[in-house]
Structure formats: structure tokens, C-alpha cells
Amino acid sequence: MSLILSHNPDQYSLCPEGLHKAQITSIEPLNEVETPFGIKDMISIVVQTEITDEEGKPYTLATRFNRSLHEKASLRIALERLNGRKFTPEQLHEGIDLEAFLGRRCNILVVHNPTEDRVYANIDVFMPFNEAREIGTAKAKKLSTKVKRLEHAGELNGV
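Above: the chain's sequence. Below: its structure in C-alpha cell form.
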């Protein structure tokens, strides 16, 4: 008996390009990975977006980083952006606990990168999630709705 598996990349819907709210769901060591630049010790950060596909499932995106906290390393840049500030020398000396980022809400900028075979949705930038901005936006929407109701009530009363 044979067991045949196939993969059709077209069966997965592509996360739309743009800025999306997301949550970090996994940070995994990939250990040694063959790259165009040789074997690298890498880490994968996986997020799920708040927007969903046609089936109501959140989009899941993963990005890989070299396991380095050098000042120019993309992992360090991403983690500092998630924090909203640069790491102090003391933090770097003590070490950065990647598990502390699990479950963290964030904003991601998704871009589409075409290849010969297909188009990939990639995380271009991680950004901190600003709850204060979310609360402010919600309050502004409530206020706007309240003003519209008052204006409408004034029209009904002939004011």
C-alpha cells in the first residue's frame, strides 16, 4: 500500500497586504538551517492575525531570524520594535527571554513577495500594539456616534 501526499499551495488563502493586528503564538528554535549564506542557527516567530480568511480562520504567518542579538540583527530589531524601545546594555548582558513575547499582541506589516512558483505573504515589520490608541479610537467612535445622535435628535425637535 502506498501513501501519497501532495501539496497545493493555491489551496491556502493569502493574508492581505497591509497593517494587521496580530498575536505572537509561537517562538521556536529551528536550530541549524541551510540558507543561501550557509548553515545558520535560526528562530521562528509565528503570529496569528485578528483578520480571518473566508472560512473564519485567522491567518497564520511565520518569519525566521538568525539567532543573534547583534545591534544590526533582524531579530534584535524586531524584538526592540515589539518593545517600543531599544534594549539597554544591562538587558542584553542578562539575556532576552523570548518566552516573554509569547501571547503578546502586536501590529505587523504584511507584504506579498512573488516567486516563480507562487506569491508569499511575509511579515515585513513588527510594531508594538498600542492599547491606548485602541481605547482612544474606540472612545472617539463612541463620541462621534453620540454627537450624530444628538444632531439627529435636534433635527427631529426642529432645533
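The chain has a mean pLDDT of 85.
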